[in-house]
Design brief:
It is a single chain. With 265 residues, the chain is of the alpha/beta class. The chain has two domains: 127 residues, Leucine Dehydrogenase, chain A, domain 1 (Rossmann fold, 3-Layer(aba) Sandwich); 130 residues, 3-Layer(aba) Sandwich (Rossmann fold), CATH 3.40.50.720. Helices cover 37% and strands 23% of the residues. The chain has ten helices and twelve strands. Strands 2-1-3-5-6-4 form a six-stranded mixed beta sheet, sandwiched between helices. The chain has a six-stranded parallel beta sheet with strand order 9-8-7-10-11-12, with helices on both faces. Helix 7 links the parallel strand 8 and strand 9. Helix 5 packs across helix 6. Bound molecules: 2'-monophosphoadenosine-5'-diphosphate. The site of 2'-monophosphoadenosine-5'-diphosphate has 15 residues, from helix 6.
Length: 265
């Protein structure tokens, strides 16, 4: 079998091996996919070692996506824009870097949640790696507007140099504005905190999307209390994996049964 791995730190709770095993079973692809812990200062070494051992590709998760971006010898356009790589393909002496996070998010929103982002007002919270990785694919979905807000406002403003057509600001700028799709790409849920959103931020029929999964974040609770439809990041996780699987194997797995399986578990 061809070998793949996901690198992260921590990596123990990664669902990626189970997701790719399900994809392989479903499509009859003969692969093995394992989780590998890399030392915080050891990612590049670990990835190169894996390639030398015959690994065909790797996924990269927190905190190594920026380092993977620098390791790649060739970049997809979306990875170049994001300055972050979550999917590596080892091909001879070349290391191809791609980023499937944004495509996974947009696909989850469209195909699984049946929400069409074209023409909608989108608010993206956060300006770290997670936010940056999804901006270009969101813009390509042709929203009416994409506003990016961040607690440290200046970090949001800096993104304007990289992404044409976004609006940026701080949470105070949200007063009097409404959005049809509000995406949480901050890490605030990890510390059980809620970004300072005004009560009036959701339009009628809005979708609130938290890129986090496996827990109910204060943002999800806040959105629910305001009568908004809420989604967590499980669908995005499975969809970004499917996009990586497609890059490596040329086959697009069905994601719905895998998402359903994880929901049930
Ligand atoms: P990631 O790779 O997950 O994006 P990151 O680069 O550390 O992680 O970025 C974390 C993001 O969550 C940042 O946008 C951060 O805002 P700051 O730039 O102001 O630090 C945001 N964030 C974290 N905790 C937050 C909170 N309690 N409220 C609002 N934003 C928060």
């Amino acid at each position: 079998p061809d070998r793949y791995a996901v690198f992260g730190n921590p990596i123990g709770h990664s669902k990626s091996p189970l997701i790719h095993a399900a994809f392989a079973r479903q499509t009859g692809q003969d692969i093995v996919y394992e989780a590998r812990l890399a030392a915080l200062d050891g990612f590049t070494q670990a990835a190169i070692t894996f390639a030398v051992e015959g690994g065909r590709g790797a996924n990269v998760t927190v905190p190594f996506k920026e380092e993977a971006f620098r390791l790649a010898t060739q970049l997809s356009e979306r990875a170049a824009k994001a300055e972050a790589v979550n999917t590596l393909t080892f091909k001879g002496d070349e290391i191809l870097g791609d980023n499937t996070d944004g495509a996974g998010l947009v696909r989850d929103i469209r195909d699984n949640l049946h929400f069409e982002p074209a023409g909608k007002r989108i608010l993206l919270m956060g300006a770290g790696g997670a936010a940056r990785g999804v901006i270009q694919p969101l813009l390509e979905a042709k929203p009416a507007a994409l506003m990016v807000v961040n607690r440290t406002e200046e970090k949001a403003h800096l993104l304007r140099d990289f992404f044409n057509g976004i609006k940026t600001g701080g949470y105070a700028d949200l007063q009097g504005r409404q959005f049809d799709l509000v995406i949480n790409a901050t890490s605030s849920g990890l510390s059980d905190q809620l970004p300072p959103l005004p009560d009036t931020v959701f339009s009628d029929g809005a979708l609130a999307y938290d890129m986090m999964y496996g827990r109910e974040t204060p943002f999800m609770r806040f959105a629910r209390e305001h009568g908004t439809t809420v989604a967590d990041g499980l669908g995005m996780l499975v969809e970004q994996a499917a996009e990586a699987f497609f890059i490596w194997r040329g086959v697009r797995p069905q994601t719905a049964p895998v998402i359903a399986q994880f929901r049930a578990a």
